[in-house]
Amino acid sequence: MLALAGCGGSGHHRVFVVGAVxxxxxxSPDPDRQMRLAKESGFQAxxxxxxxxxxxSAEQALPPLRQAVQAAVAEGVEPxxxxxxxxxxxPNDAASRSAFASxxxxxxxxxxxxxxxxxxxxxxxxxxWLPQFGPQGTDVAAWSFERLLAxxxxxxxxxxxxxxxIGGGLAPHGGDRPGGSRPTHSPTRFLLDLGRAYRxxxxxxxxMDALSVHVxxxxxxxxxxxxxxxxxxxxxxxxxELVSLLGRAFDGTGQEGPKLxxxxxxxxxxxxxxxxxxxxYTGREVVDAVSEQTQAQYYSTAIRLAACQPTVEMxxxxxxxxxxxxxxxxxxxxYADGSPKQSxxxxxxxxxxxxxxxx
Length: 359
Hints:
359 residues; alpha/beta; eight-stranded parallel barrel; 9 helices
């Protein structure tokens, strides 16, 4: 079990936010209801996706984002923007990097109620970034992503110097095997290589104001208290290792290292759907889902751990409400129709409590 480092009385005064990754308000005919569900679940922020592709325009992406942001503000929920792409649109060249950065900046300019922008989503996985490896097996993904993150950081700061630019959205696991059937990097290797790329660039401005890491367990049955001391994976219980990695990557540069704020940008635990709710879902489950009581325990523990870690500013659960396809994620605190799961009251209490003073 992880000791609750940094909890209470450390002199560190930062606001810890628990939110959700949830696009429902973008597409719903009643976005206010969707944000009300988030608010009533105890969530203080909602991350909204903006997926870039070659030729994408901010004007096309704005209408659903604008209605979701307006609904969030009306409910007192902080809107967070997440800008990324899938691997078929990897911005690997100068023109596409410029287009991506301009897209992100245009969205930020048009959405002044957004004060945090996440740049990137699991760039250490081949699903979102290609290539991962060069001909000699070297890590080319981190070096290429460093250039994109630097350019997008500058573009966003030109819009508003007070915007918090959150970099990465790193996946928690990866293989680091150039010849593997699925080319991926672990967050450990990717972060260290990102630091090498930054040092080699000669840049003296930061790349990011915070780092985002996704902290899913290897399966829904893995508790958030499981650390990975002998592997390169990163979970909530690996906080000390993550802080150390940031120091190794960036100490002595213009990018903050160990004191860099951390965002746990995605965390989810899928629940089994009871017979009374089966009609809301289609397809079949593809993972070993847990009970709602186990989800309540894991989410409550994850919130407590993250709240007690001194440089962690945000934890985002995935989602408010379940995806209706069973091969998707049933990790919400509500069923697909928005009705609450048994886990919801415990999650709401954990959010309200934060880091217990007695820990």
